[in-house]
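User: quick one, fold this
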Amino acid sequence: MNDRTKKLGGMASAVGLLAAGVMLGVAPTANAAVGPTGCSAYVSHTNDHVAVGWCSHGNGTWYVQAKCAGPGRVNGPYKGDQGYRKLGREKASTLNCGTSGYPLEMKVVNVKP
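Assistant:
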């Protein structure tokens, strides 16, 4: 094997590794940009005065938004606390309408990766 063959072989290996590194670097970035999906808002199963926002897939943040209705009034819309999923941890977004308020017109808003 002469010097020219060694140089070409080394260059081909370097180009191959560079291409593989670029491809591996692109794939996670594309997946990370997707963000939360499968989002829905509903009344809590344990407290009728609380609206819950949940996204079933993907990493990122979101908020539940709802109007609160009580005797003879409807107020809002209000935005609940932040829901999130990242690094294996997750939390639903919740909005408490108080003891005499009930959530109406619920939706998940501000969904971000």
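User: anything notable?
Assistant: The chain is about 25% helix and 50% strand.
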